[in-house]
Amino acid sequence: MRFDVKDAIQSGKTVLGIELGSTRIKAVLIGEDNAPIASGSHDWENSYVNNIWTYSLEDIWKGIQDSYQKMAEDVKQQYGVALQTVGAIGFSAMMHGYMAFDKDGELLVPFRTWRNNITEQASKVLTELFNYHIPQRWSIAHLYQAILNQEEHISDIRFQTTLAGYIHWKLTGEKVLGVGEASGVFPIDLNTKNFNQTMINQFNELIEPNNLPWKLDDILPKVLVAGENAGVLTEEGAKLLDVTGELKAGIPLCPPEGDAGTGMVATNSVAKRTGNVSAGTSVFAMVVLEKELSKVYPEIDLVTTPTGNLVAMAHSNNCSSDLNSWVGLFNEFSKAMGMDVDMNKLYGTLYNLALQGDPDCGGLLAYGYLSGEHITHFEEGRPLFVRSSDSNFNLANFMRVHLSTALGALKIGMDILLKQEEVELDVILGHGGLFKTKGVVQSIMAAALNVPVSVMETAGEGGAWGIALLASYLINKSKNETLEEYLSHKVFAEKAGTTVSPVQKDVEGFEQFMKRYTNGLAIERAAVVNLK
Prior knowledge:
Elements: H1 5-10, E1 15-20, E2 24-30, E3 36-43, E4 47-49, E5 52-54, H2 57-79, E6 88-93, E7 99-101, H3 120-130, H4 139-148, E8 159-161, H5 163-172, E9 176-178, H6 179-182, E10 188-189, E11 194-195, H7 197-207, H8 216-219, E12 222-224, H9 235-241, E13 257-258, H10 259-266, E14 274-279, E15 283-288, E16 301-304, E17 310-316, H11 321-336, H12 343-354, E18 365-367, E19 384-386, H13 395-405, H14 408-420, E20 427-431, H15 440-449, E21 453-456, H16 462-476, H17 483-491, E22 497-500, H18 504-519, H19 521-530
Parallel strand pairs: 1-6, 6-13, 9-12, 14-20, 20-21
Antiparallel strand pairs: 1-2, 2-3, 4-5, 7-8, 10-11, 14-15, 15-17, 16-17, 18-19, 21-22
Helix pairs in contact: 3-4, 10-16, 12-13, 15-18
C-alpha cells in the first residue's frame, strides 16, 4: 500500500461505510486510497408479521452494532490498534418502505419494507395525480395507503423517513436524506434537486378532506446531494454505534443513501450512458439517462443518482431467494450421501453447469416468485418449476432456467428502455451476490440485455463500499470536483475487471425463454390462487 494503514487508522484518515441489505448488514473501512482495509458483517432476515414484511428496531440496532464491532475487531487483529475515530461515516440501506414517527420520536407502526405489495390503490391514484409513476414500494405510496385505510396512527405522524434516514437521524439528530434515497420517497425536481413542490402541493390538496394536523412538507426529511455535509456523530450516536465506547463523537457524516445509489457509486456508473445491475435477494437495473422518457411506464421507476441526475430503474422483487433454496436442497442431498460440500464450491459447480445448458433452457420454465412481483402484477408469489414431457430435463438446463428466471421480470422492464425508448447503453456493470461465481451470471445477463456486462474486482464490496466512497468524497473532494470525476480519477483509475459481451445464439435463446416466461404467467397466477 502507498500509505501507512496503522497511522491512517490512528490519525482518523480512514472512512467508514455501513449498508443494511435485505439479508446482510456490512461495515467497510477504507483507507486513503479508497480501498477496503477492514470489514465486518451481520446476517439477518426479514419477518412476515401480520401480513407485513418487516425488521424490528431491535434487530436493526443489533445488526448495525454487530457488524461495526466485527469490523473494529478486524482492525485490531490486523493492525494492532483500537478504532477510535474516522474521517467520515456514511450509512445506506434498502430503499423505500415506511417508517413513521410521532412527536416523541417513537415508531408508530412496524417498519414496512420495500418488499410489501400492499399499496396498489395508492400507487394508482398517485401515478394518475402526478402523471409520474409511483411504485407500490415508494414511501409516499405507503403513506397514502395508510390514509386510505384510515389507519389510527396517521394523525400522530410528525416525521416520515426511510431505514437509512432513520439510522442517520438517530446517530446525528439530523432529519435528512441523500437525493438518490429521497427519489424513492417522493418525486424529485431535477432543477432544484429537492422534492417536487408542485406534486407536494397536489398531495396536500388530495388529503385536505382528511383534516390531518400536518402537511407533507412538515413531515419529510431535508434533501441533500452528494458532497454536502449531513451532520456529525453525536455523543449518543457514538455510544449507539459502538457499544464499547471506543468511538469518539464529532465525526462528519455524508447524506444517507439507498442501496440503488451506492450500487451506482460502487460500480462507477453515475455518468450518463452507463448502468448497473444489482442482483441479490431482489434485482434492479439502473440506467443513467441522457433525456427524460417519452411517457410514464408502470414497469419503470424514475429515481436519481446521488448527485441528482435522472435514472431509469427496472426493479424486480424476486431474484436469488428461490435459487438459493434449490442450492440448499442439493446441499441436503450431499449431506445425506455422506459428503460435506463447501457451499462456495457447490454454488460454483452448479452455476457453471448452467453455461453448458441449452440457450433456451431446454424448454424448462420456472418462477422464483417468493413474494409478489409488481412488474408482472402479482400481489403474492408461489415459487414454481414447470416442464413439458418433451423438455430437455437435465441438471445444466435446470440450473440455467433458475438463473434465467431470476432475471425474467427485470428483462421485461429493461426491454422497455432498450427496445421501446431506444436508450443508449455503452456497458452495464454487475454487482451483488449473484455475480460471485465468475463469468456465469455475467454471460446470462449479457444474453438477457444484449449489452456487454462488466464486473469489477471490487464488485464484491458492494453498497457498503459505495457509501464509504460517498463519505470519502465528502471530506476528500477537490474544489468543484464532481462525483463522476472523483470516482473516475481517484477511485477507479487503476481498478481491473472483466467484461462479457453478448453471444448471438444466447441472446436468441434467452428471447425464446422469455416467450415461454410471459406466456406461462397464467400458470403462475393459477398457482397463487389454488395453493392458498
